[in-house]
Amino acid sequence: MPNPVSSTVPPSSAAAAPAAHTASAAADSTPHNAKRWWLLAIVALAQLTVVLDGTIVNIALPQAQIALGMSDGDRTWVVTLYSLVFGALLLLGGRIADFWGRKRSFIVGMAGFAIASALGGAAQSTWELIAARGLQGLFAALLAPASLALLTVNFPGGKDRIKAFAVYGAIAGGGAAVGLILGGVLTEYASWRWCLYVNVPIAIVAIAGAIPIIKESKAHGNTKYDVPGAILVALGLGSLVFGFAQAENGWGTWPVLVFLPLGLVLLGLFVFVESRSNHPLLPLRIMADRVRGSAFLTALLSGAALLGALLFLTLYFQIVLQYTPIQSGLASLPMTVTIIIGAGVLSKFLARIGVRIPMTVGPIVGAAGLLWLTGITVEGNYLVEVLPGLILLGAGLSMIFVPLQNVALSGIADHDAGAASAAVTAMQQIGGSIGTALFTALYTAAVSSYLVGTAPTQAAELGALVSGYHSTFLWAAILIFAAGPLAFFMVRGHKDLLS
């Protein structure tokens, strides 16, 4: 094969070209490259917006329901439509970012998300709020994979990559709890509308920083869109998210029995189409690697456990312990603080110890924290029954999320950065939908079982609720624990994933 350097560079400079290239690459990877760290700050801001939006709106929903006269079914759609559109369009959004340009996709996604948030905040009717939430999901599906792809291509390896993904992982793990606090403050002291308006100033700052700092990057060569694959995966993921969301009304209801199998069939057809496509939406090589596959499964399991556990812990604080929204958010804060501290500490040692140890130990520690929470009581001694569990859970999540992105995106060519980033986010999104539906069903069954043959007193009702929370925390512990053996047996000695 002819040497491309010798064909374009004079002989006297050809030998120097590789050395110059190496020196340039080394310069690019130094921690003094200030622009990359500003890029990280901008991407982190965008990721925080997407992550906290799920919980911040949940805090605002009771007031929004009263203000707009929503039914309980309409209230559910405010949450469901966002996750439905977001989950269904993620892979397409990742490919658009690859082909159209990651910077351009980031800016358009951020601007669109802000406009949708403003429309939701100004909503005067139920359908306006629901439509705005769907629009938020659409632009989030473009913004989220573009953000992670920008990190992937701008931090290609080494200690800087570890630090960048540590920040990203800390936000992924702690952003939901931040949403609870911020939502509580805004709802109590301003209005439920500000839980949506708050995204506008954040977006303005992020876009203003992105325009001069972020350089455009995009895939080259084969950039033809896989239309059949896009349709199949959007319908498949959408069916799964919708089916799981409807499971709170019972696993035997017709939407669950129709849409869950339909989603699996459509995703099976998607895999079949991708295996034969010359320009696949999601190249199967991304998912087929054993080590990377374990990271995707870990994202699914940890996403299910985290979102499911946080939902029912918030219910325990507000319904049983009678905390205000602000108090509830502050009560969850130790988990977030532990994640942030843990991510910072682990990022310093990850290059030395590799990813296998934290990805094996993290799920065990996180499961221990969730098991501790099965000891909560109606009386509720926060310092004894809750705080140790939150600290353990935060420590475990930091050990999962810091190496997770490194493993999931290791060895991904720039051409596929958006597609791979979208796949990681899709697994977490589907995991959250599965966790919420599964734990809601388990919670309902446990509450009903507790009340059988019991006199309908207030004490009995509170006891039934706590019994339901015990069940959800136990199953969340089982789910997150399962990620430990996956890492132990599938991620063997992969320090090279960090280089």
TrEMBL record:
Pfam families: MFS_1. GO terms for cellular component: plasma membrane. Residues 39-495 form the Major facilitator superfamily (MFS) profile domain. It is found in: Cell membrane. It is a multi-pass membrane protein. One of its GO terms (molecular function) is transmembrane transporter activity. Keywords: Cell membrane, Membrane, Transmembrane, Transmembrane helix, Transport. The chain crosses the membrane at residues 37-61, 76-94, 106-123, 135-153, 165-185, 191-213, 225-245, 251-273, 294-319, 331-350, 357-378, 390-409, 430-452, 472-491. PANTHER family: BLR6921 PROTEIN, MAJOR FACILITATOR SUPERFAMILY MULTIDRUG TRANSPORTER MFSC. This is DHA2 family efflux MFS transporter permease subunit. It comes from Cryobacterium melibiosiphilum. The lineage of its organism: Bacteria, Bacillati, Actinomycetota, Actinomycetes, Micrococcales.
